[in-house]
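REQUEST ID: PR-0412
SUBMITTED BY: lab tech R.K.
PRIORITY: routine
TASK: structure prediction, single protein chain
INPUT:
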Amino acid sequence: IMAKIPLFHIDFSITHYVGDETYNEFPCVEVYNGVIHYHDDANARIDVGEIEIHLYDHMEADGSMQCGLYHCFDRSMSTIDMGDALLDEDSDDLLDDIEDTFDSTLNSGILIIHEFMLLPPFRGKGYGASILKGIEQRFAYRCRLFALKAYPKQFDPHLFQENKLKFDKYDMESMKSMKK
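STATUS: complete
OUTPUT:
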């Protein structure tokens, strides 16, 4: 018998500059950093992991602002990789097969799950799928496209050096971190 999946909460902090568009190089991108947790039967908070999502406003990047969609993805190596997978390099638009799924006025957002890390005791229990489904439900009113690049980031040498303390609490043994 499979254990009941807890009701997860995500405490988000949002990074998005308002008011001074000259200061904000990427006005069509909002970054959400979250701590994932639930409360046990004794109402104690149990931290499960962390998530970082990037919300790209496709319509704003495409029309009303000075930055194109490709420029919005040109912020770091990992976002550039995602942009290369989603965008037509020549036209600065989404690839045709992806573009066809967008309504011209509704749900113009593109949500990229930039980081999603569960602590080792919470893996392999269906928690990740439950959390991702909740993210999709929460942002569906703004986003038509949800994407992620699945790989254990703690094994990227560049990211590991920048975030060693953060990754120390996650399992560093490659076989355990990649096991489904």
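NOTES: The first helix runs from residue 58 to 64.
REVIEWED BY: pending
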